[in-house]
TrEMBL record:
Stretches assigned to the MHYT domain: 6-200
Membrane-traversing stretches: 6-29, 41-66, 72-95, 107-128, 140-164, 176-194, 214-237
Protein name as catalogued: Bifunctional diguanylate cyclase/phosphodiesterase
Protein keywords: Membrane, Transmembrane, Transmembrane helix
Catalytic activity entry: 3',3'-c-di-GMP + H2O = 5'-phosphoguanylyl(3'->5')guanosine + H(+)
Organism encoding this protein: Proteobacteria bacterium 228
GO molecular function terms attached to this record: cyclic-guanylate-specific phosphodiesterase activity
Amino acid sequence: MMTGEYDVRLVILSILVAVFASYTALDLAGRLVSAYERKAYGWLVGGALAMGTGIWSMHFVAMLAFSLPIRLGYDITITFFSWLMAVMASGLALFVIGQNTLSWGRLLAAGLMMGIAICGMHYTGMAAMRMQPGIDYDPLLFGASALIAFIASMAAMWICFTLRNVHSFSGSLQKLGAALVMGLAIAGMHYTGMAAAHFSADAICLAASDLDSTWLAVLIAVATFALLGITLVVSVLDQRLESRTSQLVHSLSEANAKLLHRSMHDPLTNLPNRMLLEDRIKQSIYVATREHSKFALVYMDLDGFKAVNDNLGHQVGDALLKEVSQLVADSIRSSDTIARVGGDEFVLLINDLKNEQAVISVCSKVLSVIQHIRGIGPHRFGISASMGIAICPDDGVEPSRLLAHADTAMYHVKSSGKNGYQFFQEQMNSDFSEEFQIQTELREAISTDVLELYYQPKLSTDEQQLVGAEALLRWNRSSKGQISPARFIPIAEKFGLIFDLDQWVLEHACKSIRHWLDHGLKVPPISINLSALRLRQKDLVEQVEHCLQHYQLDPAYLVFEITETAEMQDILQAIEVLARLNLMGIHVALDDFGTGYSSLTHLKLLPMQQLKIDRSFISDLTSKPGQAEIVESIINLAHALQLKVVAEGVETEEQLAHLQKVRCDEVQGFLLSKPLPEERFVQLLRQYSAG
């Protein structure tokens, strides 16, 4: 019987290959768990190839470390099949440890199958020597090698499964120690199998070659180290990329969630706003209709709030609103809703109303807690509330009708002495309401041309140069003085005057631009607000085109500002209308971004060139935690979509400095200029033209 010898250097090299292959397997186990499903299959295949090649390389280097008194060699085809078995065994192992759980039954079955595959690899590799006569194996050592392969396979899979989610430095040391144990186990199986082999004294190797086994072993080992090293590097880079992508997705999701929350809640009190309230009213109407139940809407206005706000300042007024919001929220059931719908106006939604006494109890309790407010901080004062009640379905089954009836009832309480509540009654509609009076006067104001346009400049953030202006409608109501657009524009929409009002603004803005140009002034683009209803008007584009032609204006002098609520109602129609305006040469800006339903998909689809950040974001820019990050995210998002960004409501130097820092394009606000009447804006245009 021939006795073989081992090259110690190659034996050590084979063990190092086994250890490196084991460490790679441990790292790949973690990638399989953390990778997305489609990518996980790629790592399974690639990992099986890399890990299988590493195990086979250890086996083949160990074979080359073995020598007999005769020339040896290895059949390429049979050697290929031994490599294939190693890859299959590795694929099985990675598949098992990539599962969510690893039961003892699955571990035993997989260990048996992997052990058989590894034994197959080893003894197929031995067969590649094509010895004649064949190799005789010691049954005891043969069985021991198979047992070692089975136990080593189970241990390797259990270790990989246990350490697959460990990514710390101490975890890396644990993996290194485990790899050493696994590598020695694999090497132990191989050399036990080699010890089981007996070679006949007259045996010859039919696959013998003249290749230098030492250099061949080194070449294979180096190639294997390179393959495993590349696999590890790719794994680390992929993990870092996936981690950064995950962080970015998480950050965007958080930002979008914050934007969505802000669009549905009042920024001061964090109560639901009108948009969320209307949605909940619709849900309550659905439930009431289905279950034949009732609910109540209570419209509440604070008595004496204006005096507190005017005399003690906005900070005290804001603190009072927060205090009232908290007290009322604590006074109602969690299934009910309190929303802030205006400066000092709130609406309570009382669900599952059993009888009128139930809503009376709620109103009495709310009035009591408000009357117990004795002031804010060092300031002593008292307030009360006026509340109007509308019942669904008795007083209507539409949100707008219910709110209008509750509002009407509340005004009756106001006119009757305040500090109380009253149910809506049909005869209240016969009274001459303030809204009806406003719309009558507004209709006359449009026809008699007594409205005015003020212009608020927009400046470049860095150079503070005039780059545009927003046309703002003003109405000096003869009987009551100046009336806020926030008051009369909703009334115009309600009574069908908004089309005439928008057309008045467009006509007068174009007329003024023409006049300025004729007097040699340099005019920047003028922004005009476009209402939600006007955006859905079929002949809007034709009316705009006619106005431009009448005054012989380049469309580039106009910018239309639309609100998020406007274009979200009918996205397809909005895209069509805005695209036609763009083709004319008119730019479009998305106004009050963040106060409506902020959809990144809609933002990408809508043909627009500017995005205006709502003043509620800017007011808290330097004082509220996280606000600066939200604003910066909005700016980065807009720039990624090739949109210019305008920040409105800039009132302090600190706000301006931060906006300059985060590369906001344009700014607008009281710090730079209040809205100017036309004669003062013309003076600014003269300076702009001279410069």
